[in-house]
Amino acid sequence: MDQPTSRYWTVNFQDSPDMLAIRADRSRREAHIAYVRAHPELDIGGEMAMSPMQDFVGAIWYVHADSEEAVEQLVVKDPFYVRSLRQYEIKAADLQCSVKGMIA
Questions:
Q1: Interatomic CA distance for residues 56 and 62, integer angstroms
Q2: Are strands 7-15 and 42-48 parallel, antiparallel or unpaired?
Q3: Residue 83: what are its φ and ψ, rounded to 5°?
Q4: How far is 104 from 27, CA to CA, in rounded Å?
Q5: Are strands 42-48 and 58-65 parallel, antiparallel or unpaired?
Q6: With the C-alpha atoms ordered 96, 48, 31, 86, is the resulting torsion angle positive or negative?
């Protein structure tokens, strides 16, 4: 039986404080939302803050893709991505181990 080529990945974003201006730009935010909706491989995404009512310091995505390169292309084509304001780290996620650990 062939192994599936796609897997799950997490993307952790760390934003500089100047990223708030990008987030506040309504047309850019709408373009970002349309981009996310057009890419069903981006299963889950959301902003991160260190505490309630604090400005966002980053975001996290959970992506189903064939390769790390495919995930990276998804990141850099996002209208919210500005290289000088947003750093990211892509890691392979082992969904099977997580599920087995929860069931056992």
A1: 18
A2: unpaired
A3: -50, -40
A4: 47
A5: antiparallel
A6: negative
pLDDT in tens, the chain (104 residues): 445 567 899 999 998 989 889 988 999 999 999 999 999 998 877 665 555 655 667 788 999 999 999 999 999 999 999 999 999 999 998 655 444 444 43
Q: Report residue 102 CA to chain centroid gap.
A: 24
Q: Which two tokens stand for residue 4?
A: 């599936």
At 84, list the tokens. 């000088």
Quick one: tokens of 56? 């966002």
Instruction: Report the SS3 class of residue 92.
Output: strand
Q: Which residue has the tokens 């959970």?
A: 62
**Which residues of 33-103 form beta strands (DSSP E)?**
42-48, 58-65, 86-93
